[in-house]
Every structure is written in C-alpha cells, then in structure tokens.
C-alpha cells in the first residue's frame, strides 16, 4: 500500500519503537549493547504527501513499558535476571523516574522531504524537559517506513548508567529507531 494523504494511527500493533544503547569506559567489554522496546505507546501521523509542511506526527510512550529485548556483546550472555534488573533500574530517579514522569512525548514542528526520504523535527519531552529532536526517515514506496534519531540522554536529565566504579557506563548517546510494518488509517 503506497503512502497516501490521510491520518494514520501509530502504535505497537503496526510499528516497532526501539531504543539502542552502546557502552563506554574502560570496562565496556563487560557490559552489553541493549535493544529496548517500548511496548505501550500511541501516536498519530497526518500525511500530506505533496505538501509535507501540512504533515505532522505526535507520539506518547509510557515510560514504564520499556522492555529489554536483546543484549549483545559482554563477557557473558544477558540473562532474564539481568533484563529484569535493567528494567528496574530504568524506572529510578537517576534514569527515567517513571512515577513522576510516566510519559515521553514527541510533537513534530516541521516535516520536510518525500515519502522516500524525510525529516521530522519536533519537541521531545523526557522527564519534564523539552528539547528539539530530528528524526530521519525513509520509505520504500509501499507504505513501509523506517527511521531513526540520535539523542544525548544527559540533555534530558538522564544520567547514563554506570557500574564498577564508573569503568563501565552506557554511552550518553542513544539511537531511537522505528519500523512501520503497515499503515492503519485512524477512524475519524
């Protein structure tokens, strides 16, 4: 299905929303590069193919819905207990503090390009702090879309996780990726 003008519903049933982390520090060989998936989120895309300025995107992610899907690298395999501990750590005050900040939001301010190659600039709010973010995307002409943005955690007040007296830490930059498997028109 080619991307056409309209309003589309976004969410886990049609789109994967992933966060990919990397490692830094002298002890980085001990840790894992993580793939984390948002499992409860919703959004809307208004598409005006010929007039991208009239297009918009908005998303809301429940911070407590982030699940560790994969851990690569490291000295040993990532266990289920490791996954559970990482998910608990993400909810604390130094990272996302989900009790006080239950959602992450993105609202576009500008859309440029074509369905095959586009940029979405907008306001990303994490932990009550709002900063601009740019999403780069591409489509294959059949309505399948994918894209990415790189953000610096510390800009939003997130202290990258550290262990072993700081010799192992997550890199401050994380990559957010999306992959739209199918478009679902929003019921008006």
Automatic annotation (TrEMBL):
It comes from the Bacteria. Pfam families: YceI (PF04264). Gene3D superfamilies: Lipid/polyisoprenoid-binding, YceI-like. Residues 7-183 form the Lipid/polyisoprenoid-binding YceI-like domain. Belongs to the UPF0312 family. This is YceI family protein. It comes from Streptomyces chengmaiensis.
């Amino acid at each position: 299905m080619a991307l056409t003008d309209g309003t589309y519903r976004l969410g886990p049933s049609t789109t994967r929303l992933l966060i990919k982390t990397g490692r830094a520090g002298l002890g980085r060989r001990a840790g894992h590069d993580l793939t984390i998936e948002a499992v409860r989120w919703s959004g809307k895309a208004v598409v005006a193919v010929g007039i991208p300025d009239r297009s918009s995107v908005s998303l809301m992610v429940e911070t407590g819905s982030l699940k560790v899907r994969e851990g690569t690298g490291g000295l040993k395999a990532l266990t289920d207990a490791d996954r559970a501990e990482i998910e608990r750590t993400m909810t604390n005050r130094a990272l996302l503090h989900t009790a006080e900040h239950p959602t992450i939001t993105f609202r576009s301010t500008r859309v440029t390009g074509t369905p095959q190659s586009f940029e979405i600039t907008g306001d990303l709010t994490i932990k009550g702090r709002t900063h601009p973010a740019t999403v780069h995307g591409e489509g294959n002409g059949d309505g399948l879309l994918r894209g990415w943005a790189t953000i610096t955690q510390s800009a939003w007040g997130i202290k990258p996780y550290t262990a072993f007296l700081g010799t192992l830490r997550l890199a401050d930059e994380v990559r957010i990726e999306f992959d739209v498997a199918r478009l679902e028109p929003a019921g008006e």
